[in-house]
Amino acid sequence: MNDTITAISTTLGLGAISIIRVSGKEAIEKVNNITNINLKEKQTHTVSYGYIIENKNIIDEVLITVMKAPKTCTTEDTVEINCHGGVATTKKVLEMILDQGIRLAEPGEFTKRAFLNGRIDLTKSQAVNDLINAKTEKARQIVINNLTGTTTNKIKKLREKLVQIISNIEVNIDYPEYQDIEEMTNQKIKQEINNIEKELNQIIENSQNSKLITNGINIAIVGRPNVGKSSILNKLIEQDKAIVTNIPGTTRDIVEATFQLEGIELNLIDTAGIRETTDLVEQIGVEKSKQAIEKADLVLLVLNNNEKLTSEDKKLLEETKHKKRIIVLNKTDLKTNINIENQEIVKTNTTKENGLKELTDKIKELFKLEKIKTNDFYYVSTIEQLQKIKNCKQNIISIKKGLKEELPIDMIEIDLKAIWQTLGEVIGETYTEELLDNLFKNFCVGK
Fold this sequence. Notes:
Shape: flat
Distance between the termini: 16 Å
Number of strands: 12
Structural class: alpha/beta
Strand content: 15-25%
Radius of gyration: 29 Å
Mean pLDDT: 85
Strand order of the largest sheet: 3-4-5-2-1-6
Largest sheet: 6 strands, mixed
Low-confidence stretches: 247-252
Helix content: 40-55%
């Protein structure tokens, strides 16, 4: 936190502009050494035109922004160099900055400093990374909610409620003669805890939905050869991406594609037909198909309506029954020869314009996509934060059990304080170095 750091903040590659960020107490002084502009005399939040100079040679024509503490991203002195895009130029300018004794930033270190210096909390910190990775408009909308403090404000209000309950309990215990302080009876505590539990349940549900919105849904299209898997993929994405023939085994490797449904990105994986084969290449494809099944959020098991169930079909029905799946009875435009009972199925064909509408409707129903609203959407992004919310739920279960068994109120208070403490950890009121390292390690270097 005491040294000055730098990193390229834009994607390294061909482009009009690259931005190199420098942050720390020596940022202005050190960058001043490699430019013909006197940055020390510049007012804060001003942009200057000039050159990066090495041994009197012009390296690049640049715009340099000077931003003085504390009104900066990190609350430290910050300099941003806008140089011409391109790998060679950008790397050369970065190299010159590093030669000044400035350290290369770690992944997410600029945002980490913003948190440690009190400019943003943990949920806003993670929202920065989520916004960078947002792939759909709906994902952008929910991330903006977190970036503007929706989740933080919700959790702070829950902590305020807990403080009020705990304070009243303390006064009731230590000063029973005070008549103007509300007595926290078991019934009143139970009512307040029910309200808090309802809010926590909403955060958990939203957090699970946020994974669908930000990461999308991974869907594996599986089945034996020539049942129409590739045709279904092509129809869903409205492109001829996968090769389609009437020759079994045409698809020998996985084919991936994406499309959006209700603002959610669906990541489709068209797998090789699963069957017993002596062909080495096809065997590798079959093995990849089985791996795709395990990793998928949803399996579309495609069966041929025009053919009777085979032993391979039955084996796939058994192997995928533990997964969230949709059994797709394809080629319904042909005569029905299949006999499948006691299974929820979706009938499709790829010859009609709306042949897959029932399938997309079923996906929306399974994941409740139409019910996901982005307004006032509060959630936590990381597994660690979500686990802490779930730990609070366990404390609530303990409180309810204690109230039912009429335990002393000071015993109930222990769990109330634990919830207050844990919620503080979620938004960063209290934290550990290990928590911060895990949170920021997935950020890009320049953020």
